[in-house]
Amino acid sequence: DIPHLAEDDPQAAALKYVHKSPDDSKHCSGCLLIQGTDGDEWRPCSVFPGKLVSATGWCSAFAPK
Ligand code: SF4
User: Fold this and answer.
1) Is the CB of 12 within 6 Å of ligand 1?
2) Which of 2, 53, 60 gets mutated to test ligand 1 (max ligand atoms within 8 A of its CB)?
3) DSSP calls for 2-61
4) Each residue's pLDDT expressed in tens, for the chain with a length of 65 residues
């Protein structure tokens, strides 16, 4: 299984990653860098290889689709 990215992971913290976006218009599920399958709750992200991010999350690398 692929582990979930922790908010206190140093790389996550460096990009201010959170599981719940503070902005409902900016979610990982709407980011160009998300991977995996639409609708999944936890998905790979090209910025955080080897970890899964929350579809409702956000980080400062967010880029709208
Ligand atoms: Fe989410 Fe950041 Fe990955 Fe975009 S780059 S999918 S905002 S963790």
Assistant:
1) no
2) 53
3) PPBPPTTSHHHHHTT-BSS-SSTT--GGGBTTB-S-TT-SEEEBTTSTTSEEETT-B-TT
4) 999 999 999 999 999 999 999 999 999 999 999 999 999 999 999 999 999 999 999 999 999 99
Structural contact between residues 15 and 60, judged by C-beta atoms closer than 8 angstroms? yes
Q: In the chain, where are the structural domains located? A: 1-65
- Please choose from 37, 58, 60 the residue to mutate so as to test ligand 1's pocket, defined by most ligand atoms within 8 A of CB: 58
Asked if the 1-65 domain carries CATH number 4.10.490.10, the reply is yes
